[in-house]
Specification:
Blueprint: H1 9-22, E1 28-34, E2 39-46, E3 52-56, E4 68-70, E5 78-79, E6 82-90
Antiparallel strand pairs: 1-2, 1-6, 2-3, 3-4, 5-6
Length: about 90
């Protein structure tokens, strides 16, 4: 679970990416920049059908403590409590 000032989104995102890569699975790190200020990190996987699956592992309050996945994310979307202004993907 997300622990403010202790174990935050960057920790979750890098842990998942490192563990995936160690298992031979390519995992991207996604950095979201919000119009209102601030950033957030999550992960992505490229699936064999060509889609990208985004994975949120922080257990953020808005997700009731659950890990979630979804298939669409674009600039202008509302995510958590902010409007996505920029998306940076690092494979």
């Amino acid at each position: 679970m997300y622990l403010p000032n202790s174990y935050i989104c960057v920790n979750y995102a890098t842990d998942l990416a490192n563990n995936s890569e160690a298992a031979g699975i390519k995992c991207g790190i996604i950095v979201l920049c919000f119009k209102e200020g601030g950033t957030h990190m999550l992960n992505a996987y490229r699936l064999t059908d060509g889609r990208t699956m985004y994975v949120e592992t922080t257990g953020s309050e808005g997700f009731a403590g659950s890990d979630i996945f979804f298939f669409e994310l674009k600039e202008g979307d509302i995510y958590l409590d902010g409007t996505v202004h920029r998306i940076y993907t690092f494979w």
